[in-house]
Amino acid sequence: MSTSEKILRYIYLQYGAAVFVDSIKLKTLLNAKIDGTDQMILSLAIDHAVASKVVRKVLSANDHKAIASIIDDLVNTGKWQPAVATKIVNCFVTAKFGQKIEPDTKVVFAKKPSCNLANYNKNIFIISNKVLKKYCGKSSQVCIPDGVVAIADKAFYECDYITDVVFPETLQTIGEKAFFKCSKLVKIDIPDGVSTIGKQAFKYCSELTTVKISNSVMDIGVESFYGCINLVHLELSQSLTVIPSCAFALCSKLISVKLPEDLMEIGEFAFAICSNLIDIEIPKMVMNIGIYAFAACKNLESLYIPENVSTIADHSFYRCSGLERIVISGYNVTIGNSSFAECSNLSQVQLLNDIYSIGNKTFYQCNNLKFVSLPPSLRSIKNIAVNFTRMQFVTKGSRFWNLLTQ
User: Fold this and answer.
1) Tens digits of per-residue pLDDT, 67-87?
2) The pTM is what?
3) Which of 143, 185, 354, 374 could tie 392 with a disulfide, CB 3.0–4.6 Å?
């Protein structure tokens, strides 16, 4: 690594991914450690959101498509020279992942299955009626035989020596607790054809860093990836309409995730304690956000809730201490008890359109809150009837402030 890369890498490790999104803080830290031409060029790159884009879009050091997109944007929009743009973007990528970019290297999963139901090793797999009942092998890399259509409940339960698994294209379902506590499993690529992932299927896979779920998957079970504390790269099926309870709770290294466009419900605790999550876009079709859905996502900075959302349940964004601004644009929306309580950096709240009711302690201990806009559609706060004829801008000291914050 160059000196600049080493300093950026140090900053990333010391302050976490969130610092790459905070341009002011990142430039301040850089200015204290780098001077001259490097400092000037890196600062310009930060102003062009290069650091932020690398954190949010680049999934690995060899994610060439995403890296190329950022470079092209610098060249086409910022009018940078291609060689300089490439060098600077790669500098931030190296800082994030701690390794040089290999131009022809791709993320590689284990080899495709070389066996099928006619010739598989019966000492390694117990298979009946095309269902893999139990894995009895000791290899760290597993190729499930072609022809298997289902993985039974607990088939790989607590196989804590497995690092890689490749699924056959014939696979359709993954059972409950199928890979529960496979604590050395590193990456998962769910192939086209799989429609269902059972509850707790990959729970406590603590070394899992990369998950790709194909668009054929229609349903994932509760707690399916709960406690995958090293999960960084998550590609969800765009066919999902529900993120169930605790599906990705305690995935504390998850930085960003693209939710399916047709998603309708985010279940309780779905992304709770994803403490490094900095960016989440609620799709426009979502109607319900469950209790504690994003609780303690402390690096989440801003939030826009689209117009189809009708329920923001109790404690849904509780203790999102980095959250600064909220805009809720739904119709006939019910905001639950303590939904945004203890969001200590929250300063602005805009409630647009038809907000129907606001629960108890909704903005409790939001000590940095400056104002809340309340629409004329609002009918109750803390079960106390209100009747506005126009938009109200409520500030500290006004008669409605205590109803919202205590």
Assistant:
1) 888 888 887 877 677 777 888
2) 0.72
3) 374
